[in-house]
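Entry:
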Amino acid sequence: MVNWENSPFGVALITISYLLAVTGLVTLLSVFVRTSGQAGAFAVLLSIVTSMISGSWWPIEIAPKFMQSVARFTPQYWAINGFNKIITRGFGYTSILPNFYVLIAIAGVLLFASIVLFRFE
């Protein structure tokens, strides 16, 4: 059984900030695609690749060092790391604040890039 009781507030922070970061990523993707078919194909490809790189499919600790460095650029890495701090280590919400801040920064950068690159037609 998963122990969410240690920090339900921390779980909410990670979940909300992760959703914002993914929203930014998908919004940026929408700037570059032309059809809904392209959007679907690229969204699946993007989610699979970033999930593999970030440690969503296997523990990031078993990946080579360069892959662990690349994983830090994905929202999934920061969300998984934050959830691990709460679930497996029993930490409180203050321990996941760096993860929260990074996810919010990723969301901000991606949403800002989406706004700048968006072309009205």
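The chain has a mean pLDDT of 90.
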